[in-house]
Amino acid sequence: MPDTPEGPDTPEAPDAPIERGPEPMSVDAGALKALAHPLRVQMYDLLADRGPATASQLGEQVGESSGTTSYHLRLLAKHGFIEEDPERGNRRDRWWRVCPGGFTLEASQVSDDPGARADLRLAAGELWRTYARQIEQWFRSAELWGDPWTDASVSNLMRVQATPEDMRAIREDVMVVLQRHAERLRDREPPSGSVRVAMQFHLFPLEHPDDNPPSE
């Protein structure tokens, strides 16, 4: 099965020097407002999951006209989430792709702006629903993929006592490992037998904040 019990970390591959790719874009309030739309999040995820596409192709996938998807694509591009693919298309047939490096959503950047906080909840909610759909789809279809794929997958859960500082240290270490492998795989010619793969990482407290008041 594509899961593992609670236990020690799996040994990591040895570190290898690589050329660092673009850093994730830090989303400000204006960009966050542009992202906070279910259709725009859906189109961004489709481009990230399936690769470059045109407005017409995305329209077919989301059930909207190419005029509607073109408008939303231009807005995403204006705020730095996506860009035109220079290796494809022309003036009449524009192809779009996600910008290298992706983006990050930091709640602390909008904590003083009630409107931005609402946009963050909407955008983050749509993204989390996408993550959940991906996980559910995998578990529903895992047995159809065969042993090589199920043996290579993992869904691991560990519970520890941690402070915010501990969590930040874990986050940074894991992101370095994920980024190293993402850079190694991203720009190569896809080998025979490869498919698009999602690397998800979640780290969050379990209790309700009211049950754990800050220490004096």
Give the helix proportion (percent range): 40-55%
- DSSP, total strands: 5
Secondary structure class reads: mainly alpha
Q: Strand share of the residues?
A: 5-15%
Using the CA coordinates, give the radius of gyration: 19 Å
Calculate the mean pLDDT score and round it: 84
What strand order characterises the main sheet? 2-4-3
Name of the CATH superfamily: Winged helix-like DNA-binding domain superfamily/Winged helix DNA-binding domain
Distance between the termini: 46 Å
Q: How many domains is the backbone divided into? A: 1
- Biggest sheet descriptor: 3 strands, antiparallel
Describe this structure in words.
This protein is mostly helical. The protein has one domain (25-211): Winged helix-like DNA-binding domain superfamily/Winged helix DNA-binding domain (Arc Repressor Mutant, subunit A). The protein is built from seven helices and five strands, in the order βααβααβββααα. It has helices spanning 29-35, 38-50, 55-62, 66-78, 114-145, 147-152, 164-186, and strands at 25-26, 53-54, 82-84, 95-98, 103-104. The chain has a three-stranded antiparallel sheet with strand order 2-4-3. Strands 1-5 form a two-stranded parallel sheet. Helix 1 crosses helix 5 and helix 3 (55-62) packs across helix 4 (66-78). The model is unreliable at 1-18 (pLDDT under 50).
